Amino acid sequence: MEPIITVNGLEKAYASGHKALKGIDLEISRGEIFALLGPNGAGKTTLISIICGLVTATRGSVRVGGHDTVRDYKRARSLIGLVPQELHTDAFEPVRATVEFSRGLFGKRPDSGLVDGLLRDLSLWDKRDAKVRELSGGMKRRLMIAKALAHEPEVLFLDEPTAGVDVALRRDMWALVRRLRERGVTIILTTHYIEEAEEMADRVGVINKGELVLVEEKDALMRKLGKKELRLTLAEPLPGVPPGLADWKLELSADGRELRYGFDAKAERTGVPSLLARMRDLGVAFTDLETRQTSLEDIFVDLVGGKAA
Ligand SMILES: Nc1ncnc2c1ncn2[C@@H]1O[C@H](COP(=O)(O)OP(=O)(O)O)[C@@H](O)[C@H]1O
Ligand SMILES: [Mg+2]
Question: Which of 69, 164, 175, 304 is deepest in the core (most CB within 10 A)?
Fold first, then answer.
């Protein structure tokens, strides 16, 4: 099946000369949840904005549902719902009217059942007649989603949907995204929370400094993220890793005072208890122990050879 989104050789240099995207190729399958993960300034919003036709690319092309986003802008755009990173809403309009208006913008005929359903789904039903400016920040965010969905798009973009959002709303968002996916909506979300990608995504793309440095099935990425490192401070420095510990791939620090063991924290057998038992048997004493989680930052450093911001 043809991907719903195809991005080819996309480059963006802003007027300042800053290269925000440096040759992005990406395909998004129909019905998947794709998380675009990257630090601030990586180019996430730029990429989304180009796909949605809000920013012009310097080079390259994008097709949405087979339509070129420049030559066939209207048809491509009609397939897309966008919840932008920055909230901007019409302060004095009633909630329900703004959602109806969003639908109308795309030339869709009024459908009060659909609009009511969205308001209910997003826990905005009680507020349907309230003015937008009376809503809390979290409710405004829900409203942005209702507006983005009002014209029944096939693809929904959520740009940092949960940045600065409380835990309850974040859970609600995740549940909503899952329901939408069940209805066949393709979802692309950007985030800098690894937890969010873990919870939600089928596939994850990592973007850094305008380059897509990795695109992988979530499960495979999480296996990498599940790596931990055990560090043992030794009571006495060692000249080398003792042969009796050869079964564990250990590293000894240059000064011989620290043993390091990388393991998969999600594995059934981490090898940690058996390592500690063997060390005791061999009389290798340690005075301190710590474990550290491989973080997204570590992954970035791995991926971009220490050039990560
Ligand atoms: N309108 C703009 N003009 C000039 N530079 C911009 C503009 N928008 C974004 N940038 C720069 O492009 C880079 C990528 O920004 P952005 O796409 O917003 O990243 P992200 O969403 O991943 O935080 C950043 O260095 C940012 O400062
Ligand atoms: Mg952004």
Answer: 69
